[in-house]
Specification:
Strand content: 5-15%
CATH superfamily: Ribonucleoside hydrolase-like
Largest sheet: 8 strands, mixed
CATH architecture: Alpha-Beta Complex
Order of helices and strands: EHEHEHHHEHEHHEHHHHHHEEEEH
Shape: globular
Bound molecules: calcium ion
Number of strands: 10
Strand order of the largest sheet: 3-2-1-4-5-6-10-7
Oligomer: single chain
Length: 388
Amino acid sequence: MSFSPVPVWLDCDPGHDDAFAIALAVKSLELKVLGVSIIHGNDTVAHCALNAKRFMWACGIQGVSVFPGVSRPLVRDAKYCPEIHGVHGKDGVAGMCGFNFPDEEIFADQTNLPSVQNGVLKMVEIVSTYPEKVTIVATGAQTNLAMAIRLFPTVKDNISKIVFMGGAIGLGNTGVAAEFNMEIDPEAAHVVFHSGIPLVMVPLEVTHSVLVTPEVLATIARIDAFSPSSFEEKTCNIGQDLGKRLQIECDEIYKRIKDINNKELTDGEESNLKIPECSSNFAKCCVELLTFFRSTYKNVFSFDSPPLHDPCAVFYCINPQSFKTVNVFLDVELSGEKCTGRTLCDLHGLSKKEPNATVCYSLDVDKFWEKMFSCLKISNEKSPLNKK
Ligand SMILES: [Ca+2]
């Protein structure tokens, strides 16, 4: 049976999880990635663009251009996320795999240079002129999208939908109430939410069910041996229904408070996070990136296994049937003293406003990992890292 891949544009801020989102998108036959624009967020635009190109090189990705976009939020000062992405952001992926990325080699190929052309302009140009409607996948702050919509409103005519990782039905992560992508530029999110473009929100309730467990790390460490039937670990499909999901969120919060009250994590405890032996340099690269992410989430949020947020939004474009969703009116708080950036999902229709968003609240996690592993296996076969 033949099918046409879905044309997508990625807007992201690599970022460990953004990097895996790029790999999932580019290596999936169901999607055709038209380009990648970079937004401030996990770090500066320049660092995030560098991270994107290095990881794309590591995955053996060629022919997909990277365009740095807007360097700061629309109104507010830039706020980066060093507590989560410090190493990956500031220092890029270099040094994470026991050796430095060979930038002279990577960027000797001019096609690997992040283009000086602005990401907003290239997104508008390519999306507007593409012969089919394009899906935008946004896994960072929405400043690039807001600028595109405000400056070139006709681009909306050729966008089928915006699928974004961000926001939460319930509680946030970098603020008490707000999720990071929304918190750092809520005005941009407001422009996007009120643009009239169909929205799909992949919130924390979903991404917190996609956990990088020890079993996941072990599978990636031996990614060359992965086959769909070999991954039998049942990553719990929490989020069977919205009420249960929210209860789990609350349990996590209570657990964290209890842990903080009882004891602080020690260096000795952190050292118990063993890195599995890896069968290739590329596998080692992935495992070490995710291990860093893992220990950071343990330190900051008391998650035993960290969530891998951003690829979930890409996976929606590949397999939307794997998600449970609800259509609601979605908005974002701009002026609250304590809740700025909080996403507001009108689950009960209290606003009397027509739904403008499909909000995901559950995901078939096993299906996600099967696809993610398949794409990493393809990357492993193509990776120049394995020739080192
Ligand atoms: Ca991101």
